[in-house]
Amino acid sequence: MSGRHPVAVIIGMMGAGKTRVGREVAQMLRLPFLDADIEIEREVGMSIPDYFAQYGEPAFRRVESELIARTLSDFDGIFALGGGAPMTPAVQDALAGYMDEGGRVIYLQADPKEAMERANRGGGRPMLDGGDANARWMRLYEQRDPVFTALANVHVRTHGSTPQMAARKVMNMIEERVVHVDVAGGDDYNVRIGEGAMNHLAGVLGPGAHRIALIHTQPVQRHSDRARALLRQAGYEVSDIVIPDAEAGKTVTVANGIWERLGREGFTRSDAVVGVGGGAATDLAGFIAATWMRGVHYVNCPTSLLAMVDASTGGKTGINTTGGKNLAGSFYTPAGVLADTTTLASLPNDIFIEGLGEVAKSGFISDPEILRILREHAAELRAFDGASLLGSPLEDVVDELIERTVRVKARHVSADLKEAGLREFLNYGHTMGHAIEKIEHFRWRHGNAVAVGMVYAAELASILGIIDDDLVVEHRTLLDSLGLPTSWNGGSYEDVLALMHRDKKARGNRLRFVVLDAIGHPIHLDDPPADAVEEAFRRIAG
Ligand SMILES: NC(=O)c1ccc[n+]([C@@H]2O[C@H](COP(=O)([O-])OP(=O)(O)OC[C@H]3O[C@@H](n4cnc5c(N)ncnc54)[C@H](O)[C@@H]3O)[C@@H](O)[C@H]2O)c1
Ligand SMILES: Nc1ncnc2c1ncn2[C@@H]1O[C@H](COP(=O)(O)OP(=O)(O)O)[C@@H](O)[C@H]1O
Ligand SMILES: O=C(O)C1=C[C@@H](OP(=O)(O)O)[C@@H](O)[C@H](O)C1
What we know:
By secondary structure, the protein is of the alpha/beta class. Helix content is about 50%, strand content about 15%. Helix 1 packs across helix 8, helix 2 (about 35-45) crosses helix 4 and helix 12 packs across helix 13. The structure holds nicotinamide-adenine-dinucleotide (NAD), adenosine-5'-diphosphate and shikimate-3-phosphate. Adenosine-5'-diphosphate (ADP) binds near residues 12, 15, 17 and 162. Keywords: Amino-acid biosynthesis, Aromatic amino acid biosynthesis, ATP-binding, Cobalt, Cytoplasm, Kinase, Lyase, Magnesium, Metal-binding, Multifunctional enzyme, NAD, Nucleotide-binding, Transferase, Zinc.
């Protein structure tokens, strides 16, 4: 956004807490605060009830919309609007323009009973004058709630929250990181990263859907419970679908069970799927969405680091077959990805570390800053303990790594959704990695196999004189410091070679690798000499 614009604009019913909570948010973020009503009173030199009494509501709305238009382009703090302001068409247009430029309009959704009581308490609200104030408030609520819901791009429920708690929720939404993914010939979408990102569920799904298939695994039950509550509050009918954990969920038998159930429960083409869990759950959820009635909307809520940085974004959906992993599926992009980092609180250490394999990969192929952050914080990352993550200094580091890695992924998939060229670079370390996974019967975790695969690719590039040995050492040292494996000797060269020939990048009888010729600069390596391929294997055998 160019020029000065509010960090956030808060809208909501009278008594929702726009002024009280908005002020608190501004204090927490050390930003200035402006309340439209207070500014109007200052400008017209009288109280709002007096202005209403003397000039009437239409005149008030004119003053109000002019002040709002001005403030939207000349203020860089937290801006709270008066309750009725967003009902004025000129204000709606101004807010739409502000959001187009990346602005946040936050609908502070208080419990109607609580807000109504609070609005009646202090007086000074002319819209409630002249009869039963509660009935008036309720009538306004019925008119305004649907408009506010549709208008805002951030929704924060404050039911039963103290002003401080509500402010913290708002602050989390403001501090959220958003990565935009362009989809050539399709609908763009956002990856939202941060505490409370899941609160966007209803906003991303929109009003079109009636039923939601909520697909998740048992270990993330408490996170899917939250998703279900958010969906129900928003008025959706939710079918809770628990699938077997990890790879056991990515089968045609599981998919078939879900198709049967969607049929029985009357899911239509306008209904939607939400996937909550690790990469296996989001891959399966995406596959169901891609195939049900030839494609319905879906939203991914990844809960593992690997799913947040990699699996949930990019539109590769699929299941495994007896022939191998991910052999059946389709490219089908989600309507949005909500990487709610509060879910990391329950993530086991080894699953977190595995995810760092893909983070490091993104650093090697595209973003040296990722490598710097990993190096600087290796010890803390290696000691990851979800229970103490939230609110700790490490949380910021993890959020930064997630955002940067998603940006790398977004750049590659935006340019090449169907993996015709650039997207293949995301496969750095995967040619050997996939072979290891297969030989290990998928008991080796993906990110760990990719770590060894990157060392293999670096060794290969070094043998061929494409990179110096220093860069190979850099691979080994970094991955090792994060607790990732750098060697493997679980199978024969012949088996590995045969599997690498079946890699998706291979062409005809020729092997095809991704290697680096420098950090941040991946290249394709076609048909390398057989002795180099074997020598690199010898070097990772450890
Ligand atoms: N679609 C893609 O582009 C893409 C990219 C990379 C990987 N993948 C796929 O992703 C899968 C690997 O993903 P993964 O590493 O997340 O594995 P996973 O889905 O098997 O999850 C690992 C384990 O962690 C548990 N878990 C996840 N989040 C948790 C949380 N917050 N708290 C407690 N437990 C939690 C899961 O239930 C599971 O037991 C593979 O199937 C792989 O093929 C897909
Ligand atoms: N979450 C909350 N819990 C308790 N009291 C609140 C809360 N939010 C606001 N209040 C109080 O309710 C009253 C109305 O809040 P205010 O911020 O003026 O609402 P608005 O600006 O949305 O009309 C104030 O006295 C405020 O201190
Ligand atoms: O709802 C409304 O139409 C109004 C709400 C008030 O703001 P609060 O919501 O801050 O009370 C104030 O702008 C004016 O009384 C009109």
